[in-house]
Amino acid sequence: MSGTEPRAITVEPMSLHIGAEISGVDLKQKLAPETIAQIRAAWVRWKVIFFRGQHLDHAGHVAFARQFGEPTIGHPVFGHDDAFPEIYSVAKVRKGNATYRDKPMLCPWSFWHADLTPAINPPAGSILRGDVVPPYGGDTQWTDLAAAYNGLSQTLRGIVEKLDAVHAFDTPGGSAAKSEYAAAVRGRVLVSEHPLVTVHPDTGERVLYVSPQFVKSISGLHPRESQKLLELLWEHAVRPEYTVRFRWQAGDVAFWDNRSTAHLAPLDIFESEFDRQLYRITLVGEVPAGVDGRRSRAIEGRPLKSAAEELAAA
């Protein structure tokens, strides 16, 4: 093999359904087309892939992301880095995690979510890198929503495939209505209705498209029916056998398929004195489609666009 030929990456699965660690690649370098194809194939197959010890800066993070899609603005609701508008700061304390610190009544599915599903075209993928990482605690979990769909009975699959669900950011009431978090949510309202089962555009897999933090109701059902069915589906979707847990180290990168996974940001970090600073980029996605071909519909808010387009329209 000559020095200019790409080296095959190593893919080491981490669980039966989801998660693989990728080695044999330096993300600070421009990747060969063959390497990009290998990484993309692993990403689609394993749904979240991990790269250890890459130590990217903001510019390197953006350059890596652009090889797999067009980055959105850092976060349409909660802002972005001034110098690198594609970057969203996932800090221990930030506007977007205000609800985590309030310690509401917790359920097994509390705060699990896919990124930005209230948008009509949620991100295709998300790329998160660890900068300041605690010595322990602060792990992130992902769940395979295609495996969760397959784990439903055939009868229930036939029911949920016909249903749609409304996704939105929470709008706090009471005294919280005047908070910085509430102001940000009101400043960029996003509400969409997505099929409860979507078809993955690359694999054709059927995906149980539930995002517990963002799904508010199932369309066409009475409120009690909607809540009980959602709780059943949420509980099922985060069963341990569909999940993988990642222990961060400084310099690590996680790249997940936002069309077929949900993930859980850790709550334990708020019980420690440790700092935690990660940075995320999301990639522009398509409008989801259901089993019968029906498309999601926007109820309120505009589609996610590239960072450049967002800034030009501002």
CATH superfamily: Clavaminate synthase-like
Number of domains: 1
Radius of gyration: 19 Å
Briefly note the CATH topology name.
Double-stranded beta-helix
Tell me what the CATH architecture is: 4-Layer Sandwich
- Which regions are unreliable across 5 or more consecutive residues at pLDDT < 50? none
Main-sheet strand order equals: 1-2-3-13-5-15-4
Helix and strand sequence: EEHEHEHEEHHEHEEEEHEEEEEH
Average residue pLDDT: 93
Description:
There is one protein chain. By secondary structure, the chain is an alpha+beta fold. It has one domain (10-304): 4-Layer Sandwich (Double-stranded beta-helix). Helices cover 22% and strands 23% of the residues. It has 8 helices and 16 strands. The protein has helices at residues 33-46, 58-66, 98-101, 145-150, 154-160, 180-187, 223-237, 307-313, and strands at 10-13, 20-23, 48-51, 88-91, 125-132, 140-144, 164-168, 191-195, 197-199, 206-208, 215-218, 243-246, 253-257, 261-264, 277-283, 297-300. The strands form 4 sheets. A 7-stranded mixed sheet has the order 1-2-3-13-5-15-4, with helices on one face. A hairpin with a 6-residue loop joins strand 9 (197-199) and strand 10. The radius of gyration is 19 Å and the shape is globular.
